[in-house]
Specification:
There is one protein chain. By secondary structure, the protein is α+β, with helices and mostly antiparallel strands. The chain folds into two domains: 139 residues, Jelly Rolls, CATH 2.60.120; 61 residues, Winged helix-like DNA-binding domain superfamily/Winged helix DNA-binding domain (Arc Repressor Mutant, subunit A). 47% of the residues lie in helices and 25% in strands. The strands form three sheets. A four-stranded antiparallel β-sheet has the order 2-6-4-5. Strand 9 and strand 10 form a beta hairpin. Helix 4 packs across helix 5 and helix 6 crosses helix 8. The relative contact order is 0.14.
Length: 206
């Protein structure tokens, strides 16, 4: 896939050439860990195809989903951590088979100085990720788990562009920062109310 077919912002031919020159493309299978927590960031990822989920783990090992990174997007946490020579505060996992372009941190700084549209791309990503994180905080603080679960299922279906979600109750619980028994009980309630139809490791949004 060519650079100008996937990059999200309206970029000049020069910056597309630089991204192609500086970047290293790698492929990942579903479930592959792309970035571990507490690891140093040497490059920032731009998703060419597929999607990534970004998770945060607490001291007890519980995880919660922060946001998804889709095609044409990057991880603002990688930008900030890499530029400040800091370790990653999140974990990034391939949500599906994905191809990612990695831009070395030192080249990212050069692009910021030379191309205003690259800085604009970073700011727009920062704004989008900030809004998504506010949604997570709002959901955890103010919404009941059944509402969070239904919204989460809708978001995943929107990401995959399908009404069918192939996922275990354990995985849903992990991404929502709760336990499997709670998710299973709420899914049965949602099926009774006509919101979803349950199958083996499959949820159909009605």
């Amino acid at each position: 896939m060519e650079i100008d077919n996937f990059i999200e912002f309206k970029s000049s031919p020069q910056i597309r050439e630089k991204l192609a020159e500086y970047g290293i493309s790698k492929s990942f299978k579903e479930g592959d860990i792309i970035l571990k927590e507490n690891s140093y960031i040497n490059s920032i990822p731009i998703v060419k195809s597929g999607s990534i989920r970004v998770m945060r783990t607490d001291e007890d090992g519980r995880e919660i989903l922060l946001y998804y990174i889709k095609s044409g997007e990057s991880c603002i946490m990688s930008f900030l951590g890499g530029i400040h020579n800091d370790t990653s505060k999140v974990k990034a996992i391939a949500e599906e088979e994905s191809e990612i372009l990695f831009i070395p941190i030192e080249k990212v700084s050069l692009l910021i100085k030379e191309y205003p549209e690259w800085l604009d791309y970073i700011f727009r990503l920062y704004h989008k990720r900030f809004e998504e994180l506010l949604e997570v905080v709002n959901a955890v603080a103010f919404k009941k788990m059944d509402e969070r679960l239904l919204n989460f299922i809708k978001k995943k279906c929107e990401l995959t562009m399908s009404h069918n979600l192939y996922v275990t109750h354990e995985q849903l619980a992990k991404e929502l920062g709760t336990v499997r028994v709670v998710v299973s009980r709420l899914l049965k309630q949602m099926e009774f109310e006509g919101h979803v139809k349950l199958g083996r490791n499959k949820i159909t949004l009605l």
